[in-house]
Amino acid sequence: MGLNEIIAELSGLSRSELEQVGAKLNELLQRKPQPASRNWGEALSSFAGTVEGLPADYAVNHDHYLRGVPKR
Predict the structure, then answer these.
(1) b/e map 11-43, b = 16+ CB within 10 Å
(2) Do 69 and 63 touch, CB atoms closer than 8 A?
(3) Which DSSP letter does residue 47 get?
């Protein structure tokens, strides 16, 4: 559900429900900002070299092993 859909749904809520939504929003706004997460490349690099049993040339020839194309 996107932002515009959420906003559209708010008009159908009762006062009590809106107060609950407001309380939750205030709670979320009071949280300390989370540190920036790693980008996907950094996250994937943490796995580099951890898989065992692959051919020594797998990094160069992964298309060969996955799809059968000729080795480089």
Answers:
(1) eeeeeeeeeeeeeeeeeeeeeeeeeeeeeeeee
(2) yes
(3) T
Helix, strand and coil percent figures for the chain, each rounded to 5:
50, 0, 50
6 vs 17: CA distance, rounded Å:
13
In this structure, what token pair is assigned to residue 33? Answer: 């900002």
Q: What is the pLDDT of residues 20-47, one digit of tens each?
A: 999 999 999 998 877 777 788 888 888 8
Return the pLDDT at 5. Answer: 92
Q: Give residue limits of the domains in the chain.
A: 1-31
